[in-house]
Q: What sequence folds into this?
């Protein structure tokens, strides 16, 4: 029996109830109450469906905008395919979705709609609600992105999470990020790598390393500079405190530097040689302890136009977006230089200062807390980001780190291709 027939039957029985008047009043009151409840339920379904439709449409339009190396028909096809991959079946049910993608005067224009069947609103004569979404994505021709991947390769990254070794899952997700952005806009994207544990292994001009002199480069492992130099992107001066190569903290000195080269844990400056980035990601393996602030320090320097690295665009270049992606799976365990004693707590404070200074320089900071239980560390990583609501990701047991890197790819794409 249809819902309307059932309701009519109930009302007839109540009308002849021995309590007569009361029954009629209750029956009459039930109609608007049922309608109100039905409207509420259907509007919740509408809001969910509208959100799912808009998200899928935005993803499709961004994919079309980003595919600058493809022909217009191929870009439209890429947008439609991405839309299909992202639309949530649970939100739209079995409805047929109409959508269109087009490119007009350097803008991707997209629209989508479908009929959402209603439930109790049928009592008021409605059979369905039209769910619609639209978006436009501008395609600037000269936007560029410089991305520093600051990745934790401490020993705990050998642990298994959700059935997969953590550093292997991170590696695969990072490669997908590199390949996704490189495929869509290879001429305008550069990546740099900062694999860190309790040191970093890096090549620097001798003039910027303590105890070195003359021309040429020095290659080796180093910890942070002395404070406050270790929280800025300023080029080292003649002052010894401003240089790298400071004494190693004795607490983990026994771990040494011997495994950095065999494990390929080598800082790679910004480059558009994506094959080289992928090759190094494939080769790197975890080692030793955790100096998050040191990783962020070198990520900041890779993106900076200041020496010792020369690959970064000027901060004044408004056509270049600079992004630091910082991932760690644990707490700071290595002492760092500060205004007082060299302590682990100082390393935590330094990370906060580095993030603040990088953001003040115009760098977008994103972070991933990878299976971290320590609330203070998670909060610190969240606060490091440019926009905690969009740029912070937490990945735990049963969750997929690939989803975090895919969201980062979408965020970076949105910075390069500004939509409205």
A:
């Amino acid at each position: 029996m249809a819902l309307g027939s059932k309701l009519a039957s109930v009302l007839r029985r109540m009308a002849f109830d021995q309590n007569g008047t009361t029954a009629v009043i209750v029956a009459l009151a039930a109609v608007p109450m049922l309608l109100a409840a039905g409207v509420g339920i259907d509007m919740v379904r509408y809001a969910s469906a509208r959100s799912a439709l808009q998200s899928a449409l935005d993803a499709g339009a961004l994919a079309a905008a980003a595919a600058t190396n493809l022909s217009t028909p191929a870009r439209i096809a890429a947008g439609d395919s991405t839309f299909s991959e992202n639309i949530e079946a649970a939100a739209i049910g079995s409805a047929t979705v109409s959508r269109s993608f087009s490119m007009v005067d350097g803008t991707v224009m997209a629209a989508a709609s479908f009929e959402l069947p209603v439930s109790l609103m049928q009592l008021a004569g409605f059979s369905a609600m039209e769910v619609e979404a639209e978006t436009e994505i501008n395609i600037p021709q000269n936007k560029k992105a410089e991305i520093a991947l600051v990745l934790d390769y401490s020993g705990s990254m050998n642990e298994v999470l959700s059935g997969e070794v953590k550093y292997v899952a991170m590696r695969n997700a990072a490669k997908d990020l590199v390949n996704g952005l490189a495929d869509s806009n290879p001429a305008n994207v550069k990546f740099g790598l900062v694999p860190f544990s309790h040191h970093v292994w890096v090549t620097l001009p001798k003039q910027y390393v303590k105890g070195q002199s003359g021309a040429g480069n020095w290659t080796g492992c180093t910890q942070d500079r002395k404070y406050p130099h270790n929280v800025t992107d300023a080029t080292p001066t003649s002052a010894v405190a401003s240089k790298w190569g400071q004494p190693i903290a004795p607490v983990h000195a026994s771990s040494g530097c011997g495994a950095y080269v065999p494990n390929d844990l080598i800082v790679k400056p910004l480059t558009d040689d994506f094959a080289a980035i992928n090759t190094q990601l494939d080769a790197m393996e975890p080692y030793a302890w955790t100096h998050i602030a040191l990783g962020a320090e070198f990520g900041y320097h890779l993106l900076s136009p200041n020496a010792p690295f020369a690959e970064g665009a000027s901060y004044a270049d408004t056509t270049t977006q600079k992004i630091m992606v910082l991932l760690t799976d644990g707490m700071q365990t290595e002492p760092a230089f500060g205004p007082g004693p060299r302590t682990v707590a100082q390393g935590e404070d330094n990370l906060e200062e580095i993030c603040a200074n990088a953001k003040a320089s115009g760098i977008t900071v994103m972070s991933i807390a990878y299976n971290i239980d320590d609330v203070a560390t998670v909060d610190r990583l969240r606060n490091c980001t440019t926009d905690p609501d969009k740029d912070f990701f937490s990945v735990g047991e049963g969750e997929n780190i690939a989803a975090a890197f895919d969201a980062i790819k979408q965020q970076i794409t949105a910075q390069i291709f500004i939509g409205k």
